[in-house]
Write a structure and sequence with these properties.
This protein is α+β, with helices and mostly antiparallel strands. The chain contains nine helices and six strands. It has helices at about 25-30, 45-50, 60-65, 80-90, 105-125, 130-140, 170-185, 185-190, 215-235; strands at about 70, 75, 145-150, 155-160, 190-195, 205. The chain is globular. The structure holds zinc ion.
């Protein structure tokens, strides 16, 4: 599967983590793209693609699920080795609790497979598999959280602290909770969507119902090119 972007898209404004949907639309569009365009680019796509992934800037659970390309046979694992695993977690670092450290590749893949299965089940409207639910709940339980008071100038502020016995527990718990927050919230779950490109398995949570593709520069472009070709071919050959 060709994962290369079909254009540079270097003018996308990078806004990290979960905050981009709160940003003005004008802030998250590539330069030169109108606000009314049906192409709603993911603002983190170029950063994710530079790191070897398709999609970035979705909720953590969705970014993690999107590291498995399920339309190929066999599925293509973008977490191909320890280095790719490290790049993934570093890409997600701005949205992770400050105490995070990188989980092992094996643990990341195990949780990723469970999350992907749960999100796919939710999209298909079929019951979630118990083993996948167990895996997500266990990952969530491995990092208890508490609030602590911290001095901020002359004032005390409450901060959430995450704990974990093993390196990686906190990052995995954050991903598991991200999945639970999507799956158990009907309003968020309604926004979960699979890319409209039939040759793409990427998931995303849309902030705009007109968004159809995981990425404007890969699937959006290819779909537009295919439609243009089809129209042109039909007009020329009358078929
Ligand atoms: Zn796509």
């Amino acid at each position: 599967m060709d994962l290369r972007p079909t254009n540079g898209n270097t003018s996308i404004t990078i806004v990290r983590g979960y905050t981009y949907r709160l940003t003005k639309k004008s802030d998250i569009l590539p330069l030169g793209m109108s606000r009314t365009s049906v192409l709603r680019p993911n603002p983190d796509a170029s950063a994710a693609q530079a790191a070897g992934f398709f999609v970035g800037g979705e909720p953590l659970a969705v970014d993690l699920a999107d590291t498995l390309v399920t339309v190929t046979d066999p599925p293509t694992d973008l977490l191909s080795d320890d280095e790719a695993n490290r790049r993934f977690w570093e890409m997600e670092a701005p949205g992770l609790p400050p105490e995070w450290s990188a989980p092992t590749l094996t643990a990341t893949r195990r949780l990723r497979d469970a999350i992907r299965s749960l999100l796919d089940s939710a999209l298909l409207g079929v019951p979630e598999a118990e083993p996948a639910l167990d895996a997500v709940n266990k990952a969530s339980a491995k990092s208890p959280t508490f609030i602590a008071a911290k001095l901020d100038g002359p004032n005390l502020v409450a901060v959430q602290k995450w704990t974990g016995k093993a390196a990686g527990d906190i990052a995995l718990a954050a991903a598991a909770r991200s999945a639970i927050e999507i799956l158990a919230d009907p309003q968020t779950l309604r926004l979960l969507r699979r890319c409209a490109n039939p040759n793409c398995s990427m998931l995303f949570v849309h902030g705009d119902s007109r968004r159809q593709w995981c990425t404007a520069n890969i699937c959006g472009n290819r779909t537009r090119v295919a439609r243009h070709y089809h129209r042109h071919h039909t007009a020329t050959h009358g078929t």
